[in-house]
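Recap quiz, item 2
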Amino acid sequence: MLNAPDDEIIARARKGDRTAITAIYEQTYPAIYRYLYYRLDCQEAAEDLSSEVYVRMISSLDTFCPQEVPFPAWLFQIARNLTIDYYRRMQHRNHLPLEENVINVTQDLTRSLDGRLNSVVLRQALNRISENQRDVLVLRFIAGMPIGEVAQMIRKSEDAVKGLQRRGLLALRSLLIEQENHHA
Amino acid sequence: MPDLDNILEEKLQALENGAPIEQVLASLTDDAGELAPLLELAATMRAMPHPEPVMAGVPAGESQAHTAVRTPARPAAPQRRYTFPRLQLRLAGSIAMLAAVVMMVIGGLWLQGPLTARAATLTNINGRVEIASSAAAGDWRAASNGDRVREGQAIRTLGASTATLVYYEGSRTTLAPNTLVALDELSGKWGEQLQVRLDQRDGRSSHKVIPLRGDQSFFEVLTPTGQAIVHGTTFNVVTGPNGASRFSVDTGKVQVRNGSSEVMITAGQATEIDPNGEVDDPSYRFLLKGELTSVDGSAWTVAGVTFTVTGETVIEGAPGLNQNVAVEGRLLPDGQRVADHIAPLVEQELVASFTGPVDSIGETHWVIGGVTVLVDENTVFSDSLAAGDPAEVTFTVLEDGSWLALEIQPLTREEPEPEETPTPDPNAHPGLSFESDQVALTACSDEFTVSGSLTNTAPESDDVAANVKLGYSILSGAEVIDSLILTPDQWEKIEMGQQVFFDIHLRLLPDWSQTVDQVVVEVFVAEETNSPGEHTGKLTLIITSTCQEPTGEPTEEPTEEPTETLEPSATPSPTGEVTETPEPTEEMTPTVEPTETVTPEPTEEPEETEEPDYCVGADPHPVGARLAEKYGVSYDEIMKRFCSGYGFGEIDHAYSLSLESGVPVEEIFALRESGLGWGQIKKLVARQAEEARPGEETPEPENDSNGKGNSGNNGNGKNNGNNGSNGKNNKGNKGKGKGKP
């Protein structure tokens, strides 16, 4: 979950206060990195883009309007835009997602995955679901963002996000079980 | 029916608020029980350790928040270590300065640059492409789309194979068949600075370099005799068989040098470094796509234009008379046209063009690069052109041998717009499948045209497949494949239930069977916007040699029936049983062996002959029957087109275009026979359809819609593939509105 900097720190950062910028970086970098780690399937790219987020943040701080969007959502939006740019540049076919509701109905969805899930396995599965589903799941369960902010960020209604959330979890679970069976 | 989406969110919020998972699960009603595993998964995701960047090296006494950052659980994934030295900003006035300093701070990455810059991504692989740890190592392995290629590694494309390397900031290198490059240097610096040095040992490459940023960027291509240095341009490099290197530029500028010799070539220009390292002065380029009508020693004629073939000319395959070829070359200062590269051409736009500075502009003719071209009311040109400007001329050759300009455009065009990424339609879930997943042929000839089809089997009308593009892999026999072209190979959309057809034109090297017993090619859906990665079906084409040892006596009848036989493919049924496909869709291309010596006499126009019945193959032909049903026309009508030389893919394309635009299909075929490419035809009929919309005046039909002396055959069995226009396109077909003032 992202440690949201308080308003005073953000205001100082907007004026170019070096200590405030450092504090924001320290507080938010891990969450931004985690988001990119799961959003991309290349760890190197996640590291690069994490750095790039803060370059963009600094150059755009003067346009940030706290009345319109919470700071964490604004920062994640920068990260999300960078991922979109990244894929657009790469046109990396392997990264393109499956469509929604990729579920093999013959699989036993009641099986427990506890104890067998790690970040590598999760990232592999996340990279096989649709882009919107992935965004919603990563923002909700990795970044800990409320559903309203997720909706604002991906420009969809809250109801649509709830649908993406449920279908995304279904698809993800199906893929995790499939991966597990494959490696069994 | 419970609102599962809302119930799930409600329970997730309960978890967020600290409720134990057991309690939340217990609160689920029976009809929402399916949410239990989803809640468990969500809870697991939240609770599991996630990767954290390690900020080592931070001095003691840093902020509380920072300390917290330094002590997360270690992730399962391998981690890179960062250092986070104390920020020592002296002045926080400038945001730009801060950006640079923070970049330096983040893990000391400033010095090493972006990690992604140190690898390029292989995409758009067609055929067989291989990677080795170095050019010398020889440990070649098959590459696949998405593979990352790093500094020191080498890539090669085999016959009929191509690939594109995408660098981290979006620049691209496309490798033509039979090309070998080594990535001597691949790195970058922050700010999208790219550092690339390619060593091209063999073949042809094209480069689209995004304007380089910063003073540390460079993009260089080394060849055995020279070096090209660019700063944002589109250019091409050819390494010739004798070590000569050729460089040409589409947009921008390229500095070409060898030792102390150096020239700058600009858009439309080319130069050569000969095997001795001599750098030629820049010259302008010409491009011809048309029928090879004469070979007289070193003087060849294509599309009515004669040029010189030298020992340095790279000739792919063994082009014969009446065959369509693409020729790239240079106009030397003495007016001589020298071919640099000649390649077989299947199903491409037939054009002739050259570049040069505008010498003079007249009412009836222009002089460009010392060449006089006629202009008429249909010639399209830019008003901005003036004497001295470099220009590109697309022309046609008239009966008297003079050149009539179809289009004259300035060469100082801007960099091409980046391709837009199509947006997927979230409501469309298309399913594309090949009707037959295997075609097996036993054959001895070296040229084939096989028809295939692709169907969108999705159940809902919204399930449209968009921007569909086919690709192919060569599983076996790449070394004997001269060319492999799919026509058409892309469709803007395929509706639910729609079936589209395509042709696989495959040309093998002569005597291929002495090298391999079998050629195996897989055709697949390489791109589709709405369900990318979902279309896993393939059409496998297997060609097995039946060639006999030569008996010594040549066959007297050149039109004798071919020795090939068709074997119905064995296709597993959905139930797992193997059933015979009752009617093979493939169509063989009987091939007359190429003439050993070619004569310089001009080729006579072929006389009209009765349609031979052997063009049909199976009777009724299953693909022909399906197309007739699809478009509500008679089977005979389809087969007449087929027997006149069109492939089923082209026929499907023409009728589909006719349906979309309302333009009669006869007109579309007439345009095709005039030599226009399908892309041009599509634009033209779209314009006609727009002009003919109700309420608008219907334009007068053009009288001169037919080209001169073309055969329009595009490959299904009688004429080795694709005897199209001889390049004598009539200007009227271009349909371009802007005339001479």
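Confidence is low (pLDDT under 50) at residues 92-112 of chain A.
Residues 158-183 of chain A form the longest helix (26 residues).
End of item.
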